[in-house]
């Protein structure tokens, strides 16, 4: 009991420790995933912000280069200024499309970007208009347009918006850098905490393992000692049981010999009593008178009953000791033989015997014949005077630890009070007088002993006037020959 309780306690400790480890691992995994998500989000935001700044700078640079080329050409008429102008305009549309596709996390930033794109489109038209006037030899008109400062004012607005947009993106980038640094610091802290907890858990596991190993060693030593003590007790008990078995076998042999000798010695004087009684009745009946004849008849009947009792008692004692070896017995064939033997009794009573298909059992064939013969014979004998006997044999198998064949013999006879369901199996116990029903009162005791010899049961169920059910249960797998030969072998129940 202590070993079992200690084992359950160790299992509880290990279960608790395993649960704690799983919780720690789950928490660490959650923190790690959260940290990774934060780092990933910060990194993505930084990349996006840098992309926004880069694309806006490229666009701003192209606008500035186009305006510089325009002003240089208009003021100097030197066509070399048109090269940066043309280069800037050739890439401007592509840069505008890239800026249109960028995404930003800053509130109102998208509106500012859209506004700067609108201004750039106006600036582009202004650049193209003035350069085309100059190229078409309308230099004064082009200069006049330039000096209106419309283009410069557009660029100032564009430049101001670029500064605002870039300032907001730089501010966001600084925030993201700080968040990234904070996430890195938190990741380091989580790593330190996780490492410390894991180290403590490993140390705890080692300590618990060492404690359990020491306990197991002590328990194993105690268990080995218990096994040694138990083995000694078993050996001692085995020796005692062997002595008891030997003594019991000797006693059974003596009882069997005594029963045989007693029955033989008792039968001899009974036969003489019956023989001399017959001579008295034959030779001196005239001298005995009516009362003498009555006494003589009673004496002979008593001697006959005594002879039958001795024979039945000897038969009861030999159920276990003189039984035959077990073999496969077809109960259908046994039943057919019994019905042939009982044919006269069935016809005289106007009775009927019906049966399901019965099983093949591992048994003593003679004792199976005796068992069924006695039970069916009782069903025919104990019938109601005004009702022909009806006997039905049914069969089924029972489930459980020990599967059983179950043969039920149901009749419509006189029945008996359920309180006598066990008493009827006691030798020489009768529920009715000899004048009502013949018999010595030992037949059912023999039947139960036969069932028990085969590792089974014989159960009686009845109610007065409602017939009787005799239930024969025999193990499907049978019993060993040693068990069947053991005079004291019995089953549970």
Automatic annotation (TrEMBL):
| Catalysed reaction equations from the record | ATP + protein L-histidine = ADP + protein N-phospho-L-histidine
Q: Does the keyword Nucleotide-binding apply?
A: yes
TM segments?
A: 12-33, 189-211
In terms of Pfam families, this protein maps to:
CHASE3, HATPase_c, HisKA
A GO molecular-function annotation:
ATP binding
Q: What enzyme class is recorded for this protein?
A: transferase
Read off the Gene3D superfamilies from this record: 1.10.287.130, Histidine kinase-like ATPase, C-terminal domain
> What EC number(s) does this enzyme carry?
2.7.13.3
Which UniProt keyword terms apply here? Answer: ATP-binding, Kinase, Membrane, Nucleotide-binding, Phosphoprotein, Transferase, Transmembrane, Transmembrane helix
Q: Which residues form the Histidine kinase domain?
A: 261-478
Q: What domain of life does the UniProt record list for this protein's source?
A: Bacteria
The protein's name in its UniProt record: histidine kinase
Source organism of this protein record:
Pseudobowmanella zhangzhouensis
């Amino acid at each position: 009991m202590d070993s079992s309780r200690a084992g359950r306690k160790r299992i509880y400790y290990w279960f608790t420790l395993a649960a704690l480890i799983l919780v720690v691992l789950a928490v660490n995994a959650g923190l790690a995933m959260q940290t990774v998500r934060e780092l990933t989000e910060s990194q993505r935001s930084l990349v996006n912000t840098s992309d926004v700044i880069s694309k806006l700078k490229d666009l701003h640079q192209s606008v500035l280069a186009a305006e510089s080329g325009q002003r240089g050409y208009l003021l100097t008429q030197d066509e070399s200024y048109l090269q940066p102008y043309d280069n800037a305009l050739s890439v401007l549309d592509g840069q505008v499309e890239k800026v249109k596709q960028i995404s930003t996390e800053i509130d109102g930033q998208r509106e500012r970007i859209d506004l700067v794109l609108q201004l750039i489109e106006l600036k582009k038209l202004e650049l193209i208009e003035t350069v085309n006037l100059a190229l078409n030899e309308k230099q004064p008109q082009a200069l006049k347009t330039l000096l209106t400062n419309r283009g410069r004012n557009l660029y100032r607005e564009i430049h101001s918006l670029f500064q605002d947009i870039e300032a907001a993106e730089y501010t966001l980038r600084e925030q993201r850098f700080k968040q990234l640094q904070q996430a890195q610091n938190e990741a380091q802290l989580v790593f330190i905490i996780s490492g410390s907890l894991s180290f403590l858990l490993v140390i705890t596991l080692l300590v618990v393992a060492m404690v359990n190993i020491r306990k197991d060693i002590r328990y194993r030593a105690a268990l080995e000692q218990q096994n040694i003590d138990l083995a000694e007790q078993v050996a001692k008990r085995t020796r005692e049981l062997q002595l008891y078995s030997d003594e019991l076998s000797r006693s059974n042999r003596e009882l069997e010999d005594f029963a045989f000798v007693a029955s033989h010695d008792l039968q001899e004087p009974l036969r003489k009593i019956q023989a001399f009684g017959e001579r008295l009745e034959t030779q001196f009946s005239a001298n005995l008178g009516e009362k003498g004849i009555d006494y003589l008849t009673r004496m002979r009947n008593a001697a006959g009953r005594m002879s039958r009792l001795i024979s039945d008692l000897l038969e009861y004692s030999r159920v276990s000791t003189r039984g035959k070896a077990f073999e496969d017995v077809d109960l259908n064939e046994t039943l057919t033989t019994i019905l042939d033997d009982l044919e006269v009794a069935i016809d005289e009573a106007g009775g009927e015997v019906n049966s399901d298909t019965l099983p093949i059992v591992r048994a003593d064939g003679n004792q199976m014949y005796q068992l069924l013969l006695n039970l069916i014979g009782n069903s025919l004998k104990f019938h109601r005077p005004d009702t022909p006997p009806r006997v039905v044999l049914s069969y089924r198998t029972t489930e459980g630890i020990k599967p059983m064949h179950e043969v039920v013999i149901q009749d419509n006879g006189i029945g008996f009070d359920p309180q006598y369901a066990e008493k009827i199996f006691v030798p020489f116990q009768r529920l009715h007088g000899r004048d009502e029903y013949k018999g010595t009162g030992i037949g059912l005791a023999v039947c139960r002993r036969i069932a028990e010899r085969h590792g089974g049961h014989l159960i009686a169920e009845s109610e007065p006037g409602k017939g009787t059910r005799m239930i024969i249960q025999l193990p499907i797998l049978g019993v060993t020959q040693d068990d069947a030969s053991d005079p004291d072998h019995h089953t549970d129940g």
